[in-house]
Each structure stands twice: as structure tokens, then as C-alpha cells.
Amino acid sequence: MVSHSDLSILVLYNPACGDNTAREFFETHVLPRLERSGIIPSAVVATEGVGHAGTVVIDFLKQHEGDVAIVLGSGDGTLHEIINALAFSYTNTTQRAIPFVLVPCGTANALYSSLFTPSSEQDPIASRLSSLEAFIARSKPKSLALACTSLVGGTLQQNSRTVISVVVTSTALHASILKDSELLRKDIPGIERFKVAAQQNITRWYRSRVRLLPILSTGIVQVYDADADDFVPYQGSLDMSASFWYFLSTVNVDRLEPAFRITPLMSRIPSQDVSLDVVVVRPERDPAFTSDTPTTREAFARKTGVVFSGAYQDGNHIRFRYRQDGEIGDYRSGPAVVEYFRCGGWEWVPDEADERARLICTDGTVLEVAKGGKAVCNAIAAIPNGNIECLVYT
Ligand SMILES: Nc1ncnc2c1ncn2[C@@H]1O[C@H](COP(=O)(O)OP(=O)(O)OP(=O)(O)O)[C@@H](O)[C@H]1O
């Protein structure tokens, strides 16, 4: 195992993330803790704006060709920026492993709160230093899975691009929430803004064609079976042409906020393969559905509060089923409200007439599929450029 003195350590924090206290937290807790352990960073840098984190990391890697570690004080967005800079702005010819020490300083910190389950009993400062303590104790870092999404086809050339996410890739309601919540950031800096944006979008449905892609190593798509309380091979059609209320996939995380456990099986039944967990809500599966009208959508929206409540109750929403009259609850039988898949990837082909269906969220950044185009998302184990493996101390 590499000792700390053989590592080049970059300490990097985003002073503008979350509630703007990363600098203070690093000066008061992180840097003194490293010093007390005799660990001397090669550089300590505060990011200066959008994109800066990626530049700093690439410069650091060019200057330090041996083993490195990055102590990162930020939210998920800064990690996302770094990974995308490594994928698309870094010329790399050798295989490299880049371990991150995460210090949660952002708004939601989905990755950190998935890796270190939050507990109200824990000291609030110590609870933010768990990855740092694992690094100091020289624990073995764990590999991060990635999701690679390409926006392809369509007429707008400038929209053809590829993005890598480390937390979430979504369309439908979640992408709408992220788009609208950015406009609320100034007035509502905390995670409350996601709830406000959810209310603004709760009655929307998104028309699209979807194809679920099998896990490469097994050739199958799995679906959660509430009776078995386990994944089983999915026997339904991998192609869906439908209205979607929710369509969201994650890698690495079982929650998007400390208490919002949207893909709980990510941690409860860890995947042995390179895969994504996908949660889908198709309103037309509701036994009470007859036709798509504004009234139907409003009635459905009134019921969906239960789905979100379930996600906040330790991810219980994945057990919910429809009663014959369309009521949603933890019933013993009936169609699943949330379809929960584990697969190798997915394709999303938005209906050309449905503008909002073209939104794709990758780790909080909202992109748009060109009219007539599609998004293709695949789980990958490492950044393809030079095969860079990203790891995290846990
Ligand atoms: N000095 C800076 N001033 C303003 N913005 C910055 C600065 N440094 C970095 N940024 C930008 O801040 C954005 C938000 O950072 P980050 O995602 O880490 O925090 P967050 O949004 O508060 O948390 P989370 O992603 O967990 O919700 C990033 O997109 C990054 O480009």
C-alpha cells in the first residue's frame, strides 16, 4: 500500500458551494487534521469559478506523474466538472487511478451521504470528516462507477456532446426540477428549492421512447420484485413508448439528498456488475387511467406525493403498488407504481413535439437533446480516455 509520503496530495475546495463555508471548514478542520497526521499536501487551492477545478486537477496531474490523491471540498457538481475535464480536456496515455477524499461542502452532497449514511447522533463536524479519516487510516479506496451519456442525432450540431456523470442522469420530472431550481438558487440556497421546483412541475408528463440496455457482463436487464424483495430478470419489453412522469438513473448513490433515498437498492443490494439503477414511473400503468387529459394529470399528481414520501421514508416507495381503483400504497398485490430496473444503460428518444422531454440532467447540469435526436446513457467502469479509474476513500 502506498504511504502518504509517496503520494502527491492536492487539496482543492470550492469556496462558493453550499453555504459558502468550505474555506472556513478547511482552514479550521481539514488542513489542521492533515497537519496533525504529518501529511503535507503538495498544493492547497480554492477554485475561482466554473471550470477551474478541472484545470487545477489536470495541471496537477501533469506535474505529478506518480501516485496522487485529491482532497476535495465541494458538492457533487465540482466532482462532476473534474471528471469531465479528465475525460475531455486531458491528454493521457497511461492508465491512472485517481482517488478522491471527499469533504462534503455542497448543497446536496448525494455521493458523500450515500457513502456515509447520515446519522443525527454523529457529531456534525466529525460526520463530514469520514472520508478524510479513511484516507489518514490508509484504507483501500473504492472504485466509482460512471455513467456516460451522449446526446446524438437531431438537427442542431452544437448539441452533439458526451457527458460523464458520477451521481445521477435523468429526464422527465427530475430534469425539470433541476432546470427550474437553478433559477431559485439565489432566493432559496438550501435543498428546499428542489421541493419548490417539484411543485411547479408536478403535473407534467413526458412523451418518449425508451430502450433499456442489458448489463454487458450478463446480457440481461433486472427488475425489482417486491414479493421476492430482490432483483429478477426482466421479462417485459425493453422498448417502451409511453408517457413518463419520472425517469432517473443513478450510479454510486442510493440518495440525492441525505434523506431522499430514491434508488435504495444501490446500497441494499450492491451490484456486482457495471450497471445503473433506473427508477421509472409511467402514469398509464395506473389501473384507474383512462385517457390523458389535464384532469387526469392533476389527479395523478395528487397521488404522487405518496411516492416522494416513500423515498423520504428510507426508500419505501419501491414497494408501492396500485390498488384496482388507482389508490397507491404498500399493498400486497397490484402493479408496481415505481418500476425499478438494474441495467447497463438506456436510450431516451423524446417525442419531437414534447419540448420538456428533451431535457437531460447529468449530476445537476441540464442539457437538451436536439429535436429529432436522442440521449444514450451507458454505465462504464473508468473514464475511456487513457482508462482513468476514479476512486473514493470510504
Ligand atoms: N469561486 C467560485 N465562484 C463561483 N462558483 C464557483 C467557484 N468555484 C466553483 N464554482 C462553481 O460552483 C458550482 C457549484 O458547486 P458544487 O456542485 O460543488 O456545489 P453545490 O451545487 O452547492 O452542491 P451539490 O452539487 O452537492 O448540490 C460548480 O458548478 C462550480 O463550477
TrEMBL record:
Pfam families: DAGK_cat
InterPro entries reported in the protein's UniProt record: ATP-NAD_kinase_N (IPR017438), Diacylglycerol_kinase_cat_dom (IPR001206), Lipid_Phosphate_FormReg (IPR050187), NAD/diacylglycerol_kinase_sf (IPR016064)
Coiled-coil stretches noted in the UniProt entry, renumbered to this chain: none
GO cellular component, one term: membrane
Domain of life: Eukaryota
PROSITE patterns recorded: DAGK (PS50146)
SUPFAM superfamilies per record: NAD kinase/diacylglycerol kinase-like
Annotated DAGKc domain residues: 4-153
Record GO biological process: sphingosine biosynthetic process
Sample GO molecular function, one term: lipid kinase activity
Entry's transmembrane regions: none
UniProt cross-references to SMART domains, sorted A to Z: DAGKc
Protein name: DAGKc domain-containing protein
Organism: Scleroderma citrinum Foug A
